[in-house]
Design goal:
Layout (H helix, E strand, L loop, with lengths): L1 H14 L4 H15 L9 H7 L8 H14 L2 H13 L5 H17 L2 H18 L4 H12 L9 H10 L3 H7 L1 H22 L9 H10 L1 H15 L5 H19 L8 H31 L2 H12 L3 H18 L2 H18 L4 H15 L7 H10 L3 H7 L1 H16 L2 H11 L4
Length: 430
């Protein structure tokens, strides 16, 4: 009964139009009052503050800042040119360049929205100039941006690791193969659509052009190597890697490429501050809400209820995927993660699912949610920069969403796609 009341109150507040963070915080406070436990209200500030003080969470503002610096500092254009030389000659040319460019940029920013808003602007302009349909250009850009938080570094992985005690380094490594699977699925879809619509392919780049683009973008392409290599070598933690990424991007933008001016820095820092505050406010409210769930034993009751229905891990993962996909249509991804982790982690632990596998699985579900109306953040970002209305863009996206769902199914039921690299490089989890 308490479970229904808690989630009913949360749903009602959201339907009233309150932000998800406010809805979660108010639900917790009202529940404590309704249960006659006003003494717990004195713990509210402490719980909200404690939810944002984990050391791994310090990586979030730095990865956001790194993405902003890279988008301003000329790195996106060089990544696009390099990707064009690599795969532009395949049928559907710049559509494949779009996907590969996003896969490379994913190794730097950790944010799907940063990819969509930064690299996406370059990609869409180039595709329109080459004669591609505006809706096709926008759809490929939105779909490919979802790879950003899967290939490391990743802001959602940092949050998941902080909340569950899972190694962020193992989560980062676990995202490599799933990111490649997503990229391949999207490229196959681009090829099929290009064949149906007669889209062109680019001229095959000469070896000299490929070498020139590699050299021009070498400094930008070195960012993922420094970030992931430093973590694997034990030189720095994922949180420290975020700081290194910022310093590296700042040096490239100011000194090497000279496309960031000192006068640009206050704007970049302010945008980073605004984004960080939004994320941290959601995290603090979700921490309070999660404490309410645990205090009322709601996750335990849900686990026991589902276990009476089935003990088969594959069915439970199917149910969880369905819930996450539905929630992703109506809530921002990080909010979904913070809301459901306290509920789902005891359940997946009960059926023997590796937490690294589940972390990647959950993040991929939420990335698909970024493409679905009415709340898909990448959908809105790309709609704005491409000037394609929201619903026509959503209709154009369905083949790519289907490709991502196939990727989700493969990653769900072939755990080795996630766990092989972490186990190879860091050993099996104990």
């Amino acid at each position: 009964m308490v479970t229904l009341a808690v989630f009913g109150a949360l749903g009602a507040l959201m339907l009233l139009g309150l932000p998800i963070a406010v809805s979660m915080g108010l639900t917790a406070i009202l529940t404590f009052l309704a249960l006659g436990e006003p003494g717990l209200l004195s713990m509210v500030p402490q719980r909200m503050y404690a939810g944002t003080t984990g050391f791994p969470l310090l990586a979030i503002p730095f990865f956001i800042l790194a993405g902003n610096l890279m988008n301003t500092g000329g790195m996106t254009q060089r990544i696009f040119r390099f990707a064009q030389c690599l795969v532009g000659h395949i049928k559907g040319g710049l559509g494949h360049v779009n996907v590969v460019g996003s896969m490379i940029f994913a190794g730097m920013s950790g944010s799907a929205v940063a990819d969509a808003a930064g690299l996406g602007m370059v990609e869409i302009q180039a595709m329109l100039k080459a004669g591609y349909d505006r809706r096709f250009s926008a759809a490929v850009t939105a779909a490919s941006s979802t790879i950003g938080p899967i290939i490391p570094p990743s802001i959602p992985f940092v949050i998941f690791g902080s909340m569950t005690g899972t190694s962020v380094g193992r989560l980062f490594l676990g995202g490599f193969l799933p990111g490649l699977v997503m990229g391949l699925a999207l490229m196959i879809t681009v090829y099929i659509v290009a064949e149906q619509r007669g889209y062109p392919r680019e001229r095959r780049a000469t070896l000299r052009e490929l070498l020139d683009s590699s050299l021009d973008g070498a400094a930008a392409l070195g960012a993922p190597v420094i970030i992931i290599g430093g973590i694997l070598a034990g030189i720095f933690t994922p949180t420290e890697a975020a700081v290194v990424a910022c310093i590296y991007a700042l040096i490239l933008g100011l000194v090497v490429y000279r496309e960031i001016r000192v006068a640009d820095l206050p704007r970049i820092f302010w945008e980073t501050l605004e984004h960080t505050i939004r994320v941290m406010f959601i995290i603090s409210a979700a921490s309070l809400f999660g404490w309410l769930l645990i205090q009322q034993r709601i996750p335990t009751m849900i686990v026991e209820g589902l276990m009476t229905l089935t003990g088969q891990p594959w069915i439970i993962l199917l149910i969880i995927n369905g819930i996450l996909l539905i929630l992703g249509c109506f809530m921002e991804g990080i909010a979904v993660m913070l809301l459901t982790i306290p509920v789902f982690m005891p359940l997946v632990a009960r059926v023997g699912v590796d937490p690294v596998h589940f972390g990647v699985l959950m993040t991929l579900n939420l990335m698909i949610g970024l493409l679905t109306p009415p709340v898909g953040m990448c959908l809105y970002a790309v709609s704005s920069i491409s000037q394609v209305p929201l619903w026509p863009l959503a209709r154009e996206l369905w083949p790519y969403i289907a490709a991502l769902l196939v990727s989700l199914a493969l990653i769900t039921y072939i755990p080795g796609l996630v766990l092989w690299i972490p186990n190879l490089l860091m050993g099996a989890a104990r």
